[in-house]
Amino acid sequence: MDRIQKTSDGERWESVEIPIPLDKKGGFRTILSEFCRDFWIGIGKTIVATIAQGQDITDRKKIESEYQTTGC
Question: What is the pTM of this model?
Answer without folding.
Answer: 0.56
